[in-house]
What we know:
The chain is mainly β. The chain has a domain at 72-285: Porin (Beta Barrel), CATH 2.40.160. It has one helix at residues 250-253, and strands at residues 2-17, 24-37, 44-55, 59-71, 80-89, 97-106, 113-122, 138-147, 153-164, 167-180, 189-197, 202-213, 220-228, 258-268, 273-287, 290-303, 311-322, 325-336, 342-355, 360-361, 364-375, 378-388, 395-411. The chain has a 22-stranded antiparallel β-barrel. It is globular, with a radius of gyration of 25 Å. The termini are close together.
Amino acid sequence: MAADLHADLDLLGQVREGDQSRETEAPIDLYGQAGAANLWGRSSVDTYFRLERTLGRDDGASDFYAGYARVPNALQVPGLDATLGRQFLSEGPGGAYVADAGLLRISQPGWPVTLSLYGGAPQYFEPTYSTTVISQDETLFGGNMRGKPWQGGQIVVGYQEYARQGHTLRRLISATATQSLRNVIGAPNLYGAVAYDADGSNLDFANAGASFTAPRTRLQLNIGGSYYKPQDQNANRVEANRRNRENTIFEAFSTSEMMQFRAGLAYPLTAAIQLHGDYSFQRYEALQANVDYGHIGSAGLAWLPGGDGLEIVRVDYFVRDSAGGNVNGIDLSYENTVYEGIYFRTEANIAYYEKKSNQRDVPVSTLVAVGYDIRPDLYCELNFEANRNDRFDADLRLGFRIAYRFRTWVPLPGMIEVPS
């Protein structure tokens, strides 16, 4: 046997005028995923990272998104899988974390469930759930019991505890269920989840939805709704101690729960034209008795001129409306892969917005890109952007992308060669 060494590298660069300095700058980013599989004991390692350098400003940044080792049959226990390191954890309800953590999964033949235990420290690269003002000394641990799929359905129950600087923010008891009804008209797929915070005695999160295809018409429809209330207090007031806010950003501008509804549909008008539309709505209280509503909608079509997918034309109209203002716009795009190894695409976005502060503008952004597969594992692209907005009358950008895919097999000492 041999180790499987692999890497996916993406180098992206652009020459542009700096938004703040108004001087020419050239940010260059390297995104990478590298790892090795089929190591001793069928173990594997993987990493995800970003390296950035901005020429002209002479500064840079780096992000180590993940780096972990996975060992099946850990501690010589059949069915026990262990993953250790910085990894993506999506074991609990309501979202995923990047955490320096450990994850154990155990499953045995004949068991009706798979058990998982995890724990670690969440890490942040952007202020999504946390900010630099708030301490990021946080811990997360929990476990779940995942039932084996049965009759097109599956149930997962779990527990998750989350703390900041030793102060417990939530103790979630959760359940998730999915069900496919293939023998029912429309073959609907149903899902639902609920999470109760035992620490604050409140319903923290719930969602439910369904998708199905109408018979004969081939109309595809999906609907869903969700409820979210991270605040522990029963009274609708802002938590004064920011350290005790479960969601530091949401609780900075909302004093209540947030409710959302969304729906989407797709209809194949012909073999080459598909129509689609989406709508979502949300409601929350920015201040007590001051309710904010938000609406997002879009409608458009996808057209395959040749009917074979080598050319794709997309046209979308979109609208955004909230207490802060509204936006109306059009997205246009065209993709062409007719000629082997050559990829061409062009995009345009034209919008009109009005803000609550009485600001209004018509921003325009366009892009043209041409790429070529130099080899099966090497792709190169040049692109050009021409934009116009309230900060730049003419924002011109020249960019490139180089994508390299590497894979090889290397025999390792102590590994026994098994005939294929």
